[in-house]
Amino acid sequence: MHSNAVIAQAPSTVLGIETSCDETGVAIYRLGQGLLAHRLHSQEALHAAYGGVVPELASRDHQRRLLPLVEQALLDADLPLQALDGIAYTAGPGLIGALLVGAGFARALAHALGKPAIGVHHMEAHLLAAFLEPEPPDLPFVCLLVSGGHTMLVDVEAVGRYHVLGETLDDAAGEAFDKTAKLLGLPYPGGPALARLAEQGDPSRFPFPRPLLDRPGFDFSFSGLKTQAALAGRKAGEGAAADLAASFEAAVVETLVGKSLRALKTLGRRCLVAAGGVAANRRLREALAREAARSGLRVVFPRPEWCTDNGAMVAFAGAIRLAAGERAGLAVEVRPRWPLAELPPIASS
């Protein structure tokens, strides 16, 4: 099911815990066999009244949800708690309070069971989510990591060996989606609401720029698009929301696709992985698939449920690093800011 470059020889059953923001995710993954169970609780309804994530409320809800979700996942997998070989948890980046809830729970459980624990980098987990699919990507590949907090292009030489080619200079793509949605008066969560509205609009009505696409390199910039959308909306008046949404989405998608193709061509890679929450966007998927087919390239998307935050990707990433001999120290540490470039390579890769 998975590449030999990824799977370790020794079997390992790992519980993954994701609490970086406003989803509580747990999953159980067994190397050599695959995903045994996964459960997810979204806090979307909790934060909707505030128009965005309230960190303190997110932390408290993670506290309420974690134990019942773990118990349910164990029942789904038909496993006793003692069958776990290790515990993986998101250690960053993310909201510090939310991260501490997951880390504290995971470390306490690991200590009680006498099993190893490992802190997982949230963006590495997203990057590796494509390996949960029946037809995983071919190594090496370029990964477009695009979410609410991050937008970057990463050259993946092997699992655990990454080179960041470029990243956003300001707003991430998902952040720009959410902020533009708020300008248009759309409900929380803004990104998916904007994408739904864009289905009804004309993407050619407003000639938004494609930021940095006409310049060399792989960096992104999306804050200017948000400003352009606000100015265009004031001039156009009522009735332009759908066209604004469609034009904005088209500009973001074309920029992401153009930079991704540039990275593939520059590095001579033949496979692209699109991961992270924005990678669930239908127009982005269609555009990348179309361009890949035209150029004879392969593009791999995790299914939408593995693009948004989830425990399965954490369990998988943790299983890989635990199998390579990595272990968390005694201190419970989280990193709200954690550049992917600082992640140590996996020795066995």
Overall outline = globular
The rounded Rg comes to: 20 Å
Order of strands side by side in the largest beta sheet? 3-2-1-4-5
User: What is the count of helical runs?
Assistant: 11
Largest beta-sheet characterization: 5 strands, mixed
Poorly predicted segments: 1-11
- Strands, count: 10
CATH class assignment of the largest domain: Alpha Beta
Helix content: 40-55%
- Mind telling me the CATH superfamily name of the largest domain? ATPase, nucleotide binding domain
Structural class: alpha/beta
Q: State the CATH architecture of the largest domain.
A: 2-Layer Sandwich
What does this structure look like?
This protein is an alpha/beta fold. It has two domains: 13-128 and 306-342, ATPase, nucleotide binding domain (Nucleotidyltransferase, domain 5); 137-301, 2-Layer Sandwich (Nucleotidyltransferase, domain 5). Helix content is 42%, strand content 18%. It contains eleven helices and ten strands. It has helices at 44-48, 55-77, 96-113, 122-128, 173-183, 190-198, 223-236, 241-267, 282-295, 304-307, 311-323; strands spanning 13-18, 23-30, 34-42, 86-92, 117-121, 141-146, 151-158, 161-167, 271-275, 298-300. The strands form two sheets. It has a five-stranded mixed sheet, with helices on both faces. Strands 8-7-6-9-10 form a five-stranded mixed sheet, sandwiched between helices. The longest helix has 27 residues, at 241-267. Mean pLDDT is 94; it is low at 1-11.
In short:
The chain is of the alpha/beta class and 349 residues long.
